[in-house]
Design a protein that fits this description.
single chain; 435 residues; mainly alpha; globular
Length: 435
């Protein structure tokens, strides 16, 4: 799963490197600002998909294969209709969102064209990610990795062909991404229909199950809303960054790409722990859940410290992969020095949220994340950047402060034990299944 998420980040990394190297910092800022806005528009779907993944993992742990299949079919129907709606909405409001956050008018046409093309291909993005999430819920994290690697390689080759070789603009990078995702999704479906025992994708056999859909919404909607408000917070932070000019925007975008890459271990272990918790609660083995949490915290702590050392020590050189602009490099280096020193807080927060989501308790983690972002991080970023005399560094320092708040609140809620009561599959005191 970690390898899969690392390769997933290569989509945006390669896009940024090629755009920054061969088109310029204005195009780099356009692509960088488009990413959090696209995430804002699709984050609700991502969260709800996680809800269905938890349902699949718990039914799979209980060996209830009939309901596993119903959950998969219901998710595919949801994917189809949601992707169509979100594509239309995204294309209609993209230009308005860029103007709302105060983007430099000279960059908006490039950014809008890039985002519109990206949004047009949501069916393939949702289909691929939804299928991968189902497989992870079944405990299969290897198959999605293989298709993802192929997709990333194709994306890199197309980026190189379209921009350095053919000399096309920033829009061609979005086209390369859509082609890569469509190829991966179609190949994934063909493979699964031939070789997988549980998943057989057939439009004629798809049936919508209202009960499972309600359960999926109950579990996934809080996470989806959390993702949406987090994405909105990221867009709001770009509004603050835009006050400091194009170079600051480009530096924040590039350093954010590196930061996303560095955060992958913690996010991957959190996702793996959620599946682990779901399967073991479904199999009525709560003791293994606690052991899994301890092991995951230990592993992520070691990895986070190693990642912190790399980003802090080599931040300047990492920035040079994307651009030769001295001002952009210096601002990005400062971002990585501040943020990179506190990845252990980020990993702790994500792991604690992972165990609660695996149990089906997604509402409290949502409130904790929103509080940490909207009540702590964004106000602090606004105040420090405007009044503390440190400029854009105020935005940088707001991030670890928000992580610390989220980690402490998540740990306190974990100690209450209330998350254990939210499982979809329930057992009586004598070990008999009652739901």
């Amino acid at each position: 799963m970690l390898l899969g998420n690392v390769f997933q980040q290569f989509y945006s990394l390669i896009d940024s490197i090629i755009v920054g190297r061969f088109i310029g910092k204005e195009a780099l800022a356009a692509v960088g600002t488009s990413m959090p806005i696209s995430f804002l528009l699709i984050s609700l779907f991502i969260g709800i998909t996680m809800g269905f993944t938890i349902i699949v993992s718990q039914y799979f742990g209980a060996k209830d294969m009939i309901r596993v299949k119903k959950a998969i079919n219901t998710l595919y129907i949801f994917i189809f209709f949601t992707s169509i709606v979100m594509s239309v909405v995204g294309i209609l409001i993209s230009g308005w969102v860029f103007r709302l956050i105060g983007m430099d008018p000279s960059i908006i046409p490039q950014a809008k064209l890039f985002l519109d093309i990206f949004m047009a291909g949501l069916l393939f993005l949702f289909g691929y990610n939804g299928t991968s999430a189902i497989l992870r819920g079944l405990g299969d994290s290897k198959t999605p990795l293989y298709f993802l690697i192929g997709s990333v390689v194709l994306n890199i080759l197309l980026d190189i062909l379209f921009v350095p070789v053919l000399g096309w603009g920033v829009w061609s990078v979005a086209v390369a991404t859509i082609i890569s995702e469509a190829t991966a999704f179609i190949a994934q479906i063909i493979y699964l229909n031939r070789y997988h025992k549980v998943i057989r994708f057939s439009i004629a056999d798809l049936k919508f199950d209202p009960e499972i859909f309600r359960k999926g919404i109950r579990i996934g909607l809080p996470t989806g809303l959390q993702q949406t408000f987090v994405a909105a917070g990221m867009v709001a932070l770009y509004g603050i960054v835009n006050r400091f000019g194009v170079s600051a925007n480009a530096a924040y975008s590039v350093a954010g790409r590196i930061d996303n890459f560095a955060a992958m271990p913690a996010m991957s272990f959190s996702m793996a722990l959620s599946t682990f918790v779901g399967q073991n609660l479904g199999a009525n083995k709560p003791g293994r859940v606690i052991a899994g949490l301890r092991s995951t915290l230990a592993m992520t702590a070691v990895i986070s410290l190693a990642v912190s050392m790399i980003t802090v020590i080599f931040g300047k050189y990492l920035m040079r992969f994307f651009t030769n602009d001295p001002e952009v490099i210096e601002l990005g280096k400062g971002y990585l020095a501040v943020i990179g020193s506190f990845y252990i807080l980020f990993s702790t927060m994500f792991v604690m949220n992972g165990i609660m989501r695996g149990a089906g308790d997604t509402l409290i983690p949502m409130f904790i994340s929103l509080f940490s972002l909207w009540v702590i991080r964004i106000p602090i970023a606004t105040i420090l950047s405007a009044h503390a005399g440190i400029g854009i560094y105020g935005v940088y320092w707001s991030m670890p402060i928000g992580w610390f708040t989220g980690a402490v609140l998540s740990f306190i809620y974990y100690l209450t034990g209330r998350w254990k009561k939210k499982a979809v599959v329930k057992y009586s005191a004598d070990g008999k299944r009652i739901s």
